[in-house]
Target: 2-isopropylmalate synthase
Amino acid sequence: MNPDTAAVAREPERVLIFDTTLRDGEQSPGATMSHAEKLEIAELLDEMGVDIIEAGFPIASEGDFAAVSEIAKRSKTATICGLARANLKDIDRCWEAVKHAGSPRIHTFIGTSPLHRAIPNLTQDEMADRIHETVTHARNLCDNVQWSPMDATRTEWDYLKRTVEIAIKAGATTINIPDTVGYTAPVESADLIRRLIAEVEGGEDVIFATHCHNDLGMATANSLAAVEGGARQIECTINGLGERAGNTALEEVVMAMKVRGDIIPYSTRIDTKKIMHISRRVATVAGFPVQFNKAIVGKNAFAHESGIHQDGMLKNAETFEIMRPEDVGLSQTSLVMGKHSGRAALRAKLKEMGHDVEGNQLQDIFVRFKALADRKKEVYDEDIEALVQAQGAAEDALELKFLRVICGTEAPQSADLTLTIDGVDKQVTAQGDGPVDATFNAIKALVDHSARLQLYQVHAVTEGTDAQATVTVRLEEAGRLASGQSADTDTVVASARAYIAALNRLLVKRRTTAEGSDTRAVSYKDTV
Ligand code: KIV
Ligand code: ZN
Model:
């Protein structure tokens, strides 16, 4: 018995958390992460208590293969899973990557609904044979095999039942039921799992999993309903990252089970105090800021604005809070440090916030912290978090050295900018429609590129006119997407740095694509 099956056999009320931030989440347009970022997120997921990490789709590119292999090698407690379409080549490649893990898993899938069967043009019988052949092959390589009938919730019941039985007979140990297009609803989600467990031959010997997308905003409810119906694995992503409206959000299902254990009596292994930190890291590295009113991890999730609410909170926090901010890793103290705080105090504060930084990295944050404390009266946790998230990487080719803008009611606005490019300073003055446009034009004049600005977003980190602005920039060039983020009390400086950060990542992508190591050769949507 593989460790995942054994865990559920031991504790029938235990729900396995299968995180697919690095596979389904990373597939969402613009969310691509670098190799180092994938390793970092995998480590955080492992430490947080995720049971299974879907680390990528190894056949998709050399980059995906390398990331899954490295994550497998570094894994501590989690099972490491890779995705493979229903063909032997994909499955072999997946095994080559995951086999390094202490606990590896192969996840293979095929689209079983009429719409998906039509794409490879397979008859029901031909597809049934393919499922038997591929799951058998995967099981010969690995004793932990997950099989998914993609678009299960739009597959005819008889055919779904037939294919699930074939996969179980061929050796699948987990059967995942994807609601690929977010089409199902809670009652149906629970019934489908209940019926599969009751009617499928061998159904009682495997773990049923639920994998919901959020197109109708019901992913969390559908996942929890599936658990009610007997599913013992929830597939989810941090912040609900994923294509279109995203996947089930890990933080939502985990906290729902924790807070409403009275009516949702299931447990997970997740250390919920680590939620906030990983949420912020995923938002930064994927370049997908979290919406302010997002459940659990949104900036306003624990903020109380109205007089009645604030009054109630002061008398008894339970009047308007159903969970404590500390339970998800939000520290209670908001005013933390000032310009007299030293490096040791900053290190301790960072540690308390979940960042273990030392050496050059600590020094870099410290220098920027001091500069901020000189300019800003009060430095809050949120400010320090923004400093951490806005760090450049040592290998960056471009660095902002100097920026002065002229703006106001009289056009033209202009930017005088110096960039250090591969160690050499280059200066230019450019005009534009406003200070940000002028600054971006100046950067474009110095760095030759044809990237299109896909996203430009500004948020105030804290209250007050001296608040830092966090800026996110996403660029697209020849199908390659890259995001950058920065924070500063000067919005134009933050914008310039975010743009430069995105360009630095684009340059890396250009290079790796040219070397052939990160071409998205195949799409998981081509199911065979
Ligand atoms: O949504 C989906 O169907 C998937 C499968 C590959 C499991 O992500
Ligand atoms: Zn999916």
Q: What stands out?
A: The chain is about 40% helix and 20% strand. Residues 24, 178, 180, 211, 213, 247 surround zinc ion (ligand 2) (CB under 6 Å). The longest strand covers residues 398-406. The two ends are 29 Å apart (CA to CA).
